[in-house]
Amino acid sequence: MIDLEQLARAQQAIVEAGRQLYAAGQVPATGGNFSVRLDGSHMAVTASGRHKGRLSVADIMVTDFATRPLGSSLKPSDEARLHGQLYEDLSLAGAVLHTHSKSATLLSRVERSDTLWLSGYELQKALEGVASHDARVAVPIFDNTQDIAALADAVRQRLDEQACCAYLIRGHGLYTWARDMNACLRHVEALDFLFDCELELRRGLS
Ligand SMILES: CSC[C@@H](O)[C@@H](O)C(=O)COP(=O)(O)O
Ligand SMILES: [Zn+2]
What we know:
- It is an enzyme of class 4 (lyase).
- 38% of the residues lie in helices and 19% in strands.
- It is α+β, with helices and mostly antiparallel strands.
- It has a single domain (4-205), classed as L-fuculose-1-phosphate Aldolase, CATH 3.40.225.10.
- The protein has an 8-stranded mixed beta sheet, sandwiched between helices.
- It starts with a helix and ends with a helix.
- Zinc ion (ZN) is lined by residues 31, 79, 98, 100, 172-173.
C-alpha cells in the first residue's frame, strides 16, 4: 500500500524541483524527468511530455520500478526505467533527477571517452560520498540511444564496476541521485558548475 501522505510530499517536492530547475535553465522545452522513491518497489515519477517548469501534482504518477503504473492512466516518462533501475540497484537512492543543461549536453560531446573525471574542485564535496578536492570523481558517459531498456542494463553493469552519484548521456543530459530531493538538487547545481569549469578549462587549453 502506498502511503498517501508520503506520496503528496513526494509530488510537492517534484513540482518544486521542476520550478527551480526550469528557472535555472536545466530543463528547457519538455526535457528532463524526476522521481522520488516511495518504498522498496515504487516511485513517484513525472508523466511523459510535461513541461517540467509548470508541473502540477496531477502530473506526478506512481509506478513500480519496472515502470508499470499504479492507479493511473497517464504514460510514465519515456525514461522512467532509468529511474527504476537506480532505485532497484542503489538502496540509498531516495530521489533521481534528469536534466538537460547546455553544459552537460556540450561536455558529454567534448569528452570522447566513457568517463568524465573531476578532480581538484572544492565544490565536488557537494556530492554525496566525496570528502576532498583531491578525490577523483567518476562521471560515466553513455552514448545516447532511444533504447532505454538497453541503456538501463548498461548503467546497471557500469555501476557494478564503478561507484558514482551521476552519469551523463552523450549529447543528451545528466542523471544524478541522492538520499533525498534536496541533496539531489544540490548535486545538479554542483555538477553543472563543475561542467562549466571543465568546459572553460578545456577551451583555455585548446
Ligand atoms: C524534449 S525531448 C526530451 C525527451 O526525449 C527526454 O529525453 C526527456 O528528458 C523527457 O522525456 P519525458 O518522457 O517527458 O520524461
Ligand atoms: Zn532526457
